[in-house]
């Protein structure tokens, strides 16, 4: 793997391979000595133009457990915030000998621009770009779903026949975008659920169904209900009347939680707005995978860094 | 080159006939077979398409204020390289061209270039701020004789202000050139709203944001009995509305850019900001509709919206990049590709949409005339049989933000004459001192 920019580029086999490597990584994390020597001498740069402590820490843990050297390059308070361009930053990282750059950027496409620019030779991992994609989130989600369904027999398997309802602000969600392509590659079915203002109008050719009625969708018995965070900036821009109405129509409240089928799992990429898109009881219920998602995030990111840097690289 | 007489021998005229074209002292002095070549420099134009010098109604020359992108001199060099002899300079300079003094300054910068005639466009509102009318009358009465007013880059979105502007310019046969973009519907917009924008996670610029303004403006224009020009029409719905308005007898004219005739929004998939422009590249259906609109006369002209930007404003993530692309050097080849090779226009039509009609909309007398005896000698010779991979070296302005670099385009400008003075010969720009000396000689004799 040269870069990981989008899940749309991943074939079924490639996706299963990444998930299988993530299983191997997860296995090592149950040992007494969790650190692997695999990426000794490699330098991974976390280039974060947007604050995201959760994602940065997850990548940092993944890189360190593979013995890579980690440089955290945060835009806040650095030359980047003083107007230094992506180009100049990339050239600086090239000079520092970065082997992989994990980039989080508020601008959709910034990782593509970096990868296509020729400014830097490092492998690029998209850690979330604007409202475009967040591929490692989708990988950890798929990994989590696969483990819930197949447990220790997960290796080699896809998600055929699984139905995933992704609920909330699809329009602005990089998590939804990365999930829909990966779930489709793995044979799962995706239903986007949300208010019509927050579900894109133009989904021609997308492997996704659309529903504006959460109760109707839940009644069909989806295997996974993935709740998305409602950003505070949506509150005052006429996407919906107010948080109360949003919560009533599209929130996973206690009453809806009680109606879920026995094997339905509840996911959330975090951070959660408890009481808005998800009730506390739903978030903390046994069917919630929120905490597993965090742990699996490290395994999935270890797999990505390993595949990017350990010689399986083809241009 | 002190001689100011030229004989373009055996050129193909826009109507398809073949003739010699004699030029002397800035004017066409003969069109016919076997013209006398005594004292004239003979240019073999056999097999070359002669067109009246091209007129661009929508050029951003960037001077004053943004000289790192373009100057009047470099922009008019780009014009000459593309076969243009007149450019209308948009008002969004810094300071904004919103007073008589500033439009006269722009005019003077054009005269000091000599590569093309520069006709200033005045701002509609002071500072393009959309709050109060600029001194439209003073600009109209100035030496720059401004007839076209535009806040281009911004839409005159306030309906009352638009009504007043349309009404006011009736006093001097002016027109308002509207950049039709409903601002609230396009907050943060990055590209055409559609499947591609959804996939790329780039905020959409919906077609309705253009169409709603055009629909409002044609109704306002009818109501006050004025004249409206719609800049850079980009959607199928806009073409429909303008077709309807023209059928009703409303005095509306419209332009389409070369890029909206050829390029589509899927080019954004590369996140290559060379393809970022406002209004954005649209769908293939929209491209088909604007081509059809240009072919049937609903859209009157092609205008480049030449918008130079320095590299650093394009060499960045798409959402952080500037809107706009350069277009003067490539426009004729793009129209050739999109409209002539497809059989939608012939060369007489090209002369209309790229020369006579824009001059008429801008009320610029003596410009855009057909190649006949007595016309100002603005002439371009174009090799329709050439084909080239468009290259950075084909750009003559200051900026390189062309979406065509690396793309195969037909045709090549062989020679351009501006007021009888060659600005391009053998496909190469002539030196500035020579062009200026030629212009002085013409003005001296004329
Ligand atoms: Zn404009």
TrEMBL record, chain A:
<comment type="subunit">
    <text>Heterododecamer (2C3:3R2) of six catalytic PyrB chains organized as two trimers (C3), and six regulatory PyrI chains organized as three dimers (R2).</text>
</comment>
<dbReference type="InterPro" id="IPR006131">
    <property type="entry name" value="Asp_carbamoyltransf_Asp/Orn-bd"/>
</dbReference>
<dbReference type="InterPro" id="IPR006132">
    <property type="entry name" value="Asp/Orn_carbamoyltranf_P-bd"/>
</dbReference>
<feature type="binding site">
    <location>
        <position position="104"/>
    </location>
    <ligand>
        <name>carbamoyl phosphate</name>
    </ligand>
</feature>
<dbReference type="Pfam" id="PF02729">
    <property type="entry name" value="OTCace_N"/>
</dbReference>
<dbReference type="InterPro" id="IPR002082">
    <property type="entry name" value="Asp_carbamoyltransf"/>
</dbReference>
<comment type="pathway">
    <text>Pyrimidine metabolism; UMP biosynthesis via de novo pathway; (S)-dihydroorotate from bicarbonate: step 2/3.</text>
</comment>
<feature type="binding site">
    <location>
        <position position="174"/>
    </location>
    <ligand>
        <name>L-aspartate</name>
    </ligand>
</feature>
<dbReference type="InterPro" id="IPR006130">
    <property type="entry name" value="Asp/Orn_carbamoylTrfase"/>
</dbReference>
<feature type="binding site">
    <location>
        <position position="229"/>
    </location>
    <ligand>
        <name>L-aspartate</name>
    </ligand>
</feature>
<feature type="binding site">
    <location>
        <position position="137"/>
    </location>
    <ligand>
        <name>carbamoyl phosphate</name>
    </ligand>
</feature>
<dbReference type="GO" id="GO:0044205">
    <property type="term" value="P:'de novo' UMP biosynthetic process"/>
</dbReference>
<comment type="function">
    <text>Catalyzes the condensation of carbamoyl phosphate and aspartate to form carbamoyl aspartate and inorganic phosphate, the committed step in the de novo pyrimidine nucleotide biosynthesis pathway.</text>
</comment>
<feature type="binding site">
    <location>
        <position position="271"/>
    </location>
    <ligand>
        <name>carbamoyl phosphate</name>
    </ligand>
</feature>
<feature type="binding site">
    <location>
        <position position="270"/>
    </location>
    <ligand>
        <name>carbamoyl phosphate</name>
    </ligand>
</feature>
<keyword id="KW-0665">Pyrimidine biosynthesis</keyword>
<feature type="binding site">
    <location>
        <position position="54"/>
    </location>
    <ligand>
        <name>carbamoyl phosphate</name>
    </ligand>
</feature>
<dbReference type="Pfam" id="PF00185">
    <property type="entry name" value="OTCace"/>
</dbReference>
<dbReference type="GO" id="GO:0005829">
    <property type="term" value="C:cytosol"/>
</dbReference>
<comment type="similarity">
    <text>Belongs to the aspartate/ornithine carbamoyltransferase superfamily. ATCase family.</text>
</comment>
<dbReference type="GO" id="GO:0004070">
    <property type="term" value="F:aspartate carbamoyltransferase activity"/>
</dbReference>
<dbReference type="GO" id="GO:0006520">
    <property type="term" value="P:amino acid metabolic process"/>
</dbReference>
From TrEMBL, chain B:
<dbReference type="InterPro" id="IPR004722">
    <property type="entry name" value="DHOase"/>
</dbReference>
<feature type="domain" description="Dihydroorotase catalytic">
    <location>
        <begin position="51"/>
        <end position="236"/>
    </location>
</feature>
<dbReference type="InterPro" id="IPR024403">
    <property type="entry name" value="DHOase_cat"/>
</dbReference>
<keyword id="KW-0862">Zinc</keyword>
<dbReference type="GO" id="GO:0044205">
    <property type="term" value="P:'de novo' UMP biosynthetic process"/>
</dbReference>
<feature type="binding site">
    <location>
        <position position="60"/>
    </location>
    <ligand>
        <name>Zn(2+) 1</name>
    </ligand>
</feature>
<protein>
    <recommendedName>
        <fullName>Dihydroorotase</fullName>
        <ecNumber>3.5.2.3</ecNumber>
    </recommendedName>
</protein>
<dbReference type="GO" id="GO:0004151">
    <property type="term" value="F:dihydroorotase activity"/>
</dbReference>
<feature type="binding site">
    <location>
        <position position="152"/>
    </location>
    <ligand>
        <name>Zn(2+) 1</name>
    </ligand>
</feature>
<dbReference type="InterPro" id="IPR011059">
    <property type="entry name" value="Metal-dep_hydrolase_composite"/>
</dbReference>
<feature type="binding site">
    <location>
        <position position="152"/>
    </location>
    <ligand>
        <name>Zn(2+) 2</name>
    </ligand>
</feature>
<dbReference type="Pfam" id="PF12890">
    <property type="entry name" value="DHOase"/>
</dbReference>
<feature type="active site">
    <location>
        <position position="305"/>
    </location>
</feature>
<feature type="binding site">
    <location>
        <position position="232"/>
    </location>
    <ligand>
        <name>Zn(2+) 2</name>
    </ligand>
</feature>
<dbReference type="InterPro" id="IPR032466">
    <property type="entry name" value="Metal_Hydrolase"/>
</dbReference>
<dbReference type="GO" id="GO:0005737">
    <property type="term" value="C:cytoplasm"/>
</dbReference>
<dbReference type="GO" id="GO:0008270">
    <property type="term" value="F:zinc ion binding"/>
</dbReference>
<feature type="binding site">
    <location>
        <position position="309"/>
    </location>
    <ligand>
        <name>substrate</name>
    </ligand>
</feature>
<feature type="binding site">
    <location>
        <position position="305"/>
    </location>
    <ligand>
        <name>Zn(2+) 1</name>
    </ligand>
</feature>
<comment type="function">
    <text>Catalyzes the reversible cyclization of carbamoyl aspartate to dihydroorotate.</text>
</comment>
<comment type="similarity">
    <text>Belongs to the metallo-dependent hydrolases superfamily. DHOase family. Class I DHOase subfamily.</text>
</comment>
<feature type="binding site">
    <location>
        <position position="58"/>
    </location>
    <ligand>
        <name>Zn(2+) 1</name>
    </ligand>
</feature>
